[in-house]
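Students often ask what a holo structure prediction actually looks like on paper. The answer is less mysterious than it sounds. You provide the chain, you provide the ligand, and the output is a string of discrete structure tokens encoding the 3D arrangement of the protein together with flavin mononucleotide.
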Amino acid sequence: MGTLIAYSSRYGTSEKVAALLAERLEDVRVQNIVEEPDVKWETIDHVIVGSSIRMGTIQDEMKEWLARHEPHLLERPLALYLCAGTPTESERIRELEEAYRDTLREHAYFVEVVGSGYDFERMGFLDKAIVRMMAKQKESSLQLDDTKLNQLVEAAQTSERTRSENP
Ligand SMILES: Cc1cc2nc3c(=O)[nH]c(=O)nc-3n(C[C@H](O)[C@H](O)[C@H](O)COP(=O)(O)O)c2cc1C
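The corresponding structure tokens follow.
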């Protein structure tokens, strides 16, 4: 049994976070749910889900994946992270609520925005223009919140310990 880190990512930030978490946890399977939506649930006993916000919403594929797999997610320790520009505190909360429905947030041991990134090499013309205008960013950047990522890793390790003591 192991940990599933299931993510969707438009320009790679959520994917980088998934890889960073995987380096720090044991017995992890990292899965891009857009490319591989199916899960062998009988092999998974802990789940970390990550996605990103674009124009106020997460990827459609992630919304569908969460709805389809919700019963399995609710049966296991669950962490939910989000990558988002989130300029204000109220927007951060609104975006978390938009990304992950109440049932999942109430069940999860971690629900947080963990940072944002802008990869101008990968963005199309329209998205570059939106980022220049709205986020006032002109070049690629990665701003991850190390404190929150550490909290997530520590909580995940605790959750793993709890699971092995109470299988
Ligand atoms: C076109 C575009 C629109 C965005 N819209 C929002 C938004 O509405 N709210 C927000 O908090 N962040 C927004 N962001 C910031 C992204 O959430 C951030 O760049 C995130 O790290 C992207 O993660 P990803 O590379 O895994 O897709 C936007 C980014 C882009 C490129």
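The longest strand covers residues 44-52.
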